Amino acid sequence: MLDPLSALTDAFTSFLFGKVETTRLPVRTSTGQAQAVYLPTAAPGLGDSGVIIGREVYSGKGYIYDPFQLYGQQLPAPHWLVLGESGNGKSALEKTYVLRQLRFRDRQVVVLDAQGEDGVGEWNLIAEQLGITPIRLDPMSALDGGIKLNPLDPAITTTGQLALLRTIIEVAMGRGLDERSGFALKVAHAYVNDTITDRQPILTDIVERLRHPVKESAESMNVDIEDVRAWGLDVALVLDRLVDGDLRGMFDGPTTAGIDLDAPLIVFDLSHIDRNSIAMPILMAIVGVWLEHTWIRPDRVKRIFLVEEAWHIINSPFVAQLFQRLLKFGRRLGLSFVAVVHHLSDVVDGAAAKEAAAILKMASTRTIYAQKADEARATGRVLGLPRWAVEIIPTLTPGIAVWDVNGNVQVVKHLITETERPLVYTDRAMTEGSQTTISKERTEAEVSLTKQLTDDVVA
């Protein structure tokens, strides 16, 4: 009870300023009860339709992502860039994402598998479980009846063939074709297509015509035939490398019959190609253009084109231009392009900075795994990441990444099921665990996954 002086003071204060708030005793309670009073808040997710990736680190909510569901609403483009140092989970993310996408009946995936393990590509095991034989491109096996892809395949339009031939030559030469060399190539290509009708034209035919141009080719431009031969000499020497040099066998014959373009998963195994050789960007250009004309169709199927070591594409001006057209064209037909690179500096500081910037701009989804602090800052500047995200990238542990989906930035922990784990395990050579245990785990997972995917993938 208040003493008389305090009571008089309160009464006077209430008269002047209104009723004084009642003094309340502190409340002691448990966190379980208090959470009903202080409700937690979290940023909105990407919806509940699509492929589950894992959990948001800060809120604990499930993280679901699907470019086909988000396209046109939250995403201006369905293309995706994955960045990060080796050993932080990029490969596991790619594989589980593909496996989970394939559970939808209207999905189809092509993978350019540039990483090798145990003499085969990283995706070999997953392909086996789906009953699919990877398309292994290897100069040595190609000579003995192996897989061939023909740049002059009739499935590719005449314009596409000429653009592909120019790209192959420009990548190999490291510079653009001048007008005279371009003219020699154009007339040789036109002559071969016009005169060879009983079989697929092949690169040998182009080389032969460049070395021995016909009189009509010179007369059409009112130039001497010896000039046309001289203009095409360098072009012939470059293409001869694909016909009779260190890259022979893969491109100098008709396209191998029997490649199943309707399979749910198509794996091009490039693991036998030297990653640092000129063959890799040339090979990716040929595969990309060949797929553009044979695989992408207006049939309402949602297609994913995943490229490992994608810097071979983005860092070459000529190959990047081809893929830039493919991305713009494919977007209208339900194509999501997934580019996997280690460092953004691999592409933005190279010779194709302009083309790289254009492709990066089309990638509305960016996933960044752990990087060193200076690389993280450079990545943040290029991609426009918020400061807090840039600061935590160097501290991320394996399996956790910053996801930027058209400005919706979250930190996500990728979750792998026990069934998936043996199939996405890509560093067995560096582990000390028992190979027998690994094989047993893998066998059990294979049986389970085979049953699941056989039931779900068949259209």
UniProtKB/TrEMBL annotation:
GO molecular function (one): ATP binding
Keywords: ATP-binding, Nucleotide-binding
Top-level taxon of the source organism: Bacteria
Pfam families attached to this UniProt entry: AAA_10 (PF12846)
InterPro entries named in the record: P-loop_NTPase, T4SS_component
Official protein name in the record: ATP-binding protein
Lineage start: Bacteria, Bacillati, Actinomycetota, Actinomycetes, Kitasatosporales
